[in-house]
Design a protein that fits this description.
Blueprint lengths: L2 H17 L4 H7 E9 L3 E3 L1 H13 L4 E6 L15 E10 L5 E11 L2 E11 L1
Parallel strand pairs: 1-6
Antiparallel strand pairs: 1-2, 3-4, 4-5, 5-6
Helix pairs in contact: 2-3
Length: 124
């Protein structure tokens, strides 16, 4: 992978890590207004519903206990540098219950900013 692609990968990982804090303001600044999010408990939702759920979880003291990179896509499976980037490498665990999730997020560059267009969590 060339240096330009590596820089983009590092930038996307920085964005991913910022989302792990479950801060609604960071989600609002990162996700596209028309993003599609899919969760096992509720199915398909939009950004506003997701922001409301984040605020509710945080108010109830529910937080992800840990996040880790568990797998990287192979270079040959990756979209080219200028195309949307799929991150499919996050495993989340809740402190409060045994739920574990695998996550995939699709990012696209919009001007100077990466925007998340799609996110899916799958129970494992």
């Amino acid at each position: 992978m060339d240096e330009k692609c590596m820089d983009k990968e590092e930038e996307l990982m920085r964005i991913e890590r910022s989302l792990w804090t479950n801060n609604a303001a960071i989600y609002e600044a990162t996700y596209s207004r028309d993003a599609i999010l899919i969760f096992p408990e509720v199915g398909r939702i939009g950004l506003e519903h997701a922001l409301e759920a984040i605020r509710t979880e945080n108010a109830a003291g529910r937080h992800w206990g840990g996040s880790r990179i568990c797998r990287h896509l192979r270079d040959e499976d990756r979209a080219r540098c200028g195309a949307p980037h799929l991150r499919s490498d996050r495993a989340l665990e809740r402190r409060e219950d045994p739920a574990r999730m695998l996550c995939a997020t699709l990012y696209a560059r919009r001007g100077d900013t990466w925007r998340a267009l799609f996110h899916q969590q799958t129970s494992v």
